[in-house]
Specification:
With about 140 residues, this protein is an all-alpha fold. It is globular. The termini are far apart.
């Protein structure tokens, strides 16, 4: 599985958090991972571990988003866009293994694939503002 595919699976799990309570997520993760049973266990572990790391930082990630996304409240953002932005912010802020340009590019590609027509522009704009605020 490529890094892009791994990231896509993490995004899909993050998307599920919008529709399930935290108490339901272990079962949701199990259900999701069962569909990937043919994949190497090392890759499944990576998906699960990175998902857990993102979730552990969600309150900080959401603060960063709210402080940078002028005129946008998290509750008004599309669920797909929000999950993509959260993953990208995690990679930008907390994951030293992912170059910032790669995190942004991959987020835009996910938005093109899963979002609405304007999602890629929205995600790119929000991430640009976040990057600017992080670097200040």
């Amino acid at each position: 599985m490529s890094r892009r595919q791994l990231r896509e699976h993490i995004f899909k799990l993050l998307f599920r958090t919008e529709f399930h309570d935290a108490s339901e997520m272990p079962k949701q993760i199990q259900i999701y991972m069962e569909d990937l049973w043919e994949e190497p266990s090392k890759q499944l572990e990576y998906i699960h571990e990175k998902f857990e790391k993102v979730v552990a930082e969600l309150s900080e990630i959401d603060k960063i988003i709210v402080n940078s996304a002028e005129g946008w409240n998290i509750s008004r953002m599309g669920k797909v866009d929000l999950a993509i932005i959260r993953l990208a912010v995690y990679e930008i802020k907390f994951d030293d293994d992912i170059p910032v340009s790669v995190a942004i590019n991959e987020a835009v590609e996910l938005a093109k694939r899963y979002g609405q027509e304007e999602s890629s522009s929205f995600v790119n704009g929000v991430l640009s503002k976040i990057l600017k605020s992080i670097n200040e």
